[in-house]
Amino acid sequence: MRNFLLIILLVFIGSTIACSNGGCKILDPCSSDSDCEAGTYCSSCFGGFSGSRCVRSRITDQFKLVNNSMPFNKYAYLTTHNSFAIVGEPSHTGVPRTTFTNQEDTVSQQLNNGVRALMLDTYDFQGEVWLCHSIGGKCNDFTAFEPAVDTLKEIEAFLGANPSEIITLILEDYVHAPNGLTNVFNQSGLLKFLFPLSRMPLSGQDWPLVSDMVTKNQRLLVFTSMRAKQNTEGIAYQWNFMVENHYGDDGMKAGNCSNRAESAPLTDTSKSLVLTNYFPSIPIEAASCGHNSAELINMLHVCHGAAGNRWANFVAVDFYKAFHQMMKRSFETDPARESTVSWKDASAYTRIISSVLDGSRIRVSKRWPLEVQEEIAEERSHLPDGRNRSLIRRGG
């Protein structure tokens, strides 16, 4: 009897620890990050899957997947909302912080994991430009995160180390000090990467080719919410160049995608860029993997229609890693949904693949380049139980 119980115990242990030491693949059960294969980490998702499982730590690089020969507005970029509002960030004012956090990683970690657009809230504070999560346009000791120059230096270091990458900054801007933004960008060393306002299309034309932006080393795009700064500092006024849906709870109403007050209607094609927000007014990390899964994909389809059949260029989320860990779940939860993407509409393809928004089936055309077909097959191969076979459909 004792031997029988021992055998049962060993079988139970073996079944619960089926892999370890880097041998666990995507969605395999795990107990620590060290169990998971390279490019993944061990995480849990309340309401998404039971226990802890290996999930992706970074997104697919769209420039390597499709190449960088298309205009900037033909790609999609994973965007973090309040990128600076980081869980566990120590106070830099000596006063305990009493405000919301929206992301789990440092800005450097976000960039290294594939985030390519950052939403930052800039304020005048203590004679400098700070990043704050505040209300009423005023930064306080208890809402301040850090001097903006510290975050901008992280971005400068990333761009310096990654000469083929492009970063976009979308600023909710409350800086009124004369040339305040220009000075802090100069102090951080970022001005040398700045994409000039004079090259930004104002009438709905395509943006310059990504390859051209890289060659000219104009790899930082900055948009401000303060209209006057387009004239006073040469920083692009955001809504001259992009349309944007509602943010917070208003942007999460199923089946509804409409422009926020400052933005032109989503159908205004004189703005070449589209920003889609999908995050609640009050961020809850445990709920993010649900928000950033099938819900998000459904909203992207709704906003695609609302924006005149244009996919989002910027997809803004809270707790971005939950975005990665649920990307494969959508195949399982809603396998019947299908999106036919022609190679001619490369923008639609790259926006679904490069942002890892693969919750809808994609009909793979034989006319697409072989490497693209193989990349999709590779992405699908990570699905458990061979379900990838039923999801890959080859069209004409």
TrEMBL record:
PROSITE patterns, sorted: PIPLC_X_DOMAIN, PROKAR_LIPOPROTEIN
Organism superkingdom: Eukaryota
The UniProt record lists the keyword Membrane: no
Gene3D superfamilies in alphabetical order: Phosphatidylinositol (PI) phosphodiesterase
Keywords, ordered alphabetically: Signal
Cross-referenced InterPro entries: PI-PLC_domain, PLC-like_Pdiesterase_TIM-brl
Keyword Ion transport tagged: no
Residues spanning the signal sequence: 1-18
Family annotation (CDD domains): PI-PLCc_At5g67130_like (cd08588)
Protein name per its UniProtKB record: PI-PLC X domain-containing protein
Source organism per UniProt: Platanthera guangdongensis
